[in-house]
Design brief:
Structural class of chain B: alpha/beta
Number of helices of chain B: 11
Radius of gyration of chain A: 19 Å
Order of helices and strands of chain B: EEEEHEEHEHHHEHEHEEHEHEEHEH
Strand content of chain B: 25-35%
Strand order of the largest sheet of chain B: 7-8-9-4-10-11
CATH topology of the largest domain in chain B: Rossmann fold
Structural class of chain A: mainly alpha
CATH superfamily of the largest domain in chain B: P-loop containing nucleotide triphosphate hydrolases
Oligomer: heterodimer
Shape of chain A: globular
Helix content of chain A: over 70%
Largest sheet of chain A: none
Largest interface: A-B, 24 and 31 residues
Strand content of chain A: under 5%
Number of strands of chain B: 15
Helix content of chain B: 25-40%
Number of helices of chain A: 13
Chain lengths: 257, 307
């Protein structure tokens, strides 16, 4: 398994997509530093957790997943792996592990960049360890929401273009949902606010946000009754992830060379 | 335990209504080169994929090293080196980097395994050229290197000489022969190029439309191959009468007004020639001929040549 994981990373050598993906973690921290005037370390990191994660990390994860899962098919290398033999379920799990590591690394990179910017702006690094834990957790959580989309990419097994279309709509849908009162202001249960990943993450993350101004405070108070504890958020998303992983393994197992 | 390294029992692969491979029973003996011969689309690759568990058989069984492949993949597959269809490698990596990945996954312990394998196929070690920039011949060589890198006991090679130049073909042929003769490897090789099969293999299986038509050693096949005397004479009708009257045989064919093939091996060219001339025929040519593998293939498959 360790060798398989290392080999997956070696396959990224000279691939611009991977390096671009890591560099993309700089985008929102720099953007926020230039255009916004966040005064607290928490609000600086909040930008990383929400904008970086919801708008950049999720599509990146799915595009990277398409790349990871199509690489064997496009280059006809799956037969070489299966003849070793590498079990198909292990192959799927390792590719998902690569995405998981990328997701957490991306968020930590964003955290590091934001911290450097905060220091340069003489913003005190209040609750540093807590902010670091929250941001790293958002990396863990963002990996899970990408999985349903990755299932579709694996299922259709067609082309990058289709994957990009899926990514675009999935990211947009999730992002729009977390602005919608109709979706967000619902109790925990069988509804989009619970089952859709970004709204669920937002319901957990937003409780750690410190609102400023009348509008934000009013929203925070109204929304607070729909906050979910970490156990629920992680539980729901990891359960969804487990279902997705099971489906992916089934799809991959059925596929013949 | 069976004497065969590979044995299939009624191996069948069906896609919808179409049988790609039907009730295939092949037997590959230890330390020999077995050539699976057939036209493009005859079912050779599908058969090999089933041997390697890349494709599940619709019915039937594959036994390798005396064990069923299904359920014993972890024990059987590491002992096999294979090349199936086109070479598959990561285009953004060099040949050496590609092989190192697979060596690591295979757990190859010999430190020089990649270098040795590349040397054998005549590719440079540590070269900066990416796989995407390789010629077809280089790709094929790299795929052969991959198949031998872990020193397997059995090699399953699907059309290994595809894309190689004539010198490359001769090199690979000699190398495969050496693997069998000097290192005792068992090799299953498929090809649609008859001349290559004839030069390389010990045993042969002829497959057509998914069905194994013949399976025998090359020596047996050569014995069975038709030998005949080919005459060009002034009048084949009269020659035919002489054959029946003087030699008492009808084991010959008249091809046209001047060409005659005599399959009865009881008569010498000299005796036949003398009889024709004494009866007033002009004899322009007389040859002893033997069917080529291609003739044999045509006769067996009842159709056109193979390539």
């Amino acid at each position: 398994m360790r060798n398989l994981l290392l080999s997956e990373f070696k396959k990224f050598k000279r691939k611009k997509l991977f390096y671009f993906g890591i560099l993309a973690a700089f985008i929102f921290p720099l953007f926020n530093a230039v255009l916004l005037s966040d005064s607290t370390f928490a609000s600086v990191q909040s930008g990383v957790r929400e904008d970086n994660a919801f708008l950049l990390l999720m599509p990146l994860l799915i595009i990277l997943a398409a790349n990871l899962f199509f690489v064997e098919q496009d280059n006809d290398t799956l037969k070489n792996l299966l003849c070793i033999p590498v079990p198909k379920n292990q192959l799927v799990l390792v590719k998902l592990l690569v995405l998981f590591i990328f997701s957490v690394a991306f968020q930590l990179m964003g955290f590091a960049v934001s911290t450097v910017i905060a220091v340069s702006q003489t913003i005190p690094l209040t609750d540093f360890a807590f902010q670091l834990t929250l941001t790293a957790s958002s990396g863990v959580l963002m990996w899970a929401p990408a999985l349903p989309c990755i299932v579709l990419v694996v299922w259709f097994n067609k082309s990058y273009i289709l994957s990009v279309i899926i990514v675009f709509f999935y990211t947009l849908l999730n992002y729009v949902m977390h602005f919608s009162d109709a979706i967000m202001m619902q109790p925990f249960g069988i509804n989009a606010g619970t089952l859709m990943p970004v709204p669920m993450i937002f319901r957990w993350l937003y409780q750690f946000y410190t609102p400023t101004g009348e509008i934000q405070t009013e929203f925070y108070n109204r929304f607070s009754q729909y906050f979910v504890p970490a156990s629920v958020c992680f539980g729901v998303l990891l359960l969804e992830a487990a279902v997705c992983i099971y489906l992916m393994i089934r799809i991959y197992r059925r596929r013949e060379i | 335990m069976s004497d065969f390294i590979i044995e299939t029992k009624n191996l069948t692969k069906q896609y919808g209504e179409q049988k790609s491979v039907a009730n295939l029973n092949i037997h590959v003996k230890k330390g020999r080169i077995y050539g699976l011969l057939g036209r493009n689309g005859a079912g050779k690759t599908t058969c090999m994929k089933m041997l390697l568990n890349l494709t599940m058989p619709t019915s039937g069984e594959v036994q390798i090293f005396g064990k069923s492949v299904q359920g014993n993949e972890k024990r059987i597959l590491p002992r096999i080196g294979s090349l199936i269809e086109a070479p598959g490698f990561y285009p953004n990596l060099t040949g050496t980097e590609n092989l190192k990945i697979f060596a690591q996954l295979r757990g190859v312990s010999k430190r020089t395994a990649v270098k040795d394998a590349l040397e054998v196929v005549g590719l440079p070690y540590g070269d900066k050229k990416l796989f995407a920039q390789y010629s077809l011949g280089m790709k094929q060589r790299l795929a052969i290197a991959l198949s031998i890198m872990h020193d397997p006991e059995l090699l399953i090679l699907d059309e290994p000489i595809n894309g190689l130049d004539p010198i490359g073909i001769a090199e690979v042929r000699s190398f495969i022969r050496d693997l069998c003769d000097k290192k005792g490897k068992t090799i299953l090789i498929s090809s649609h190029i008859l001349s290559e099969i004839a030069l390389l293999v010990d045993d042969i299986g002829i497959i057509d439309h998914g069905v194994l038509l013949e399976e025998e050693s090359l020596a047996e096949l050569e014995e069975k191959n038709g030998k005949y005397i080919h005459f060009i004479v002034s009048d084949t009708a009269q020659a035919a009468r002489i054959m029946e009257r003087n030699f008492g045989t009808q084991n010959f064919t008249v091809e046209n007004d001047h060409s005659l093939r005599i399959y009865d091996n009881n008569f010498s060219v000299a005796a036949l020639n003398r009889a024709f001339i004494e009866n007033g025929l002009e004899v322009s040519e007389a040859h002893t001929c033997e069917d080529t593998l291609e003739d044999y293939f045509k006769r067996i498959t009842g159709g056109e040549g193979i390539a």
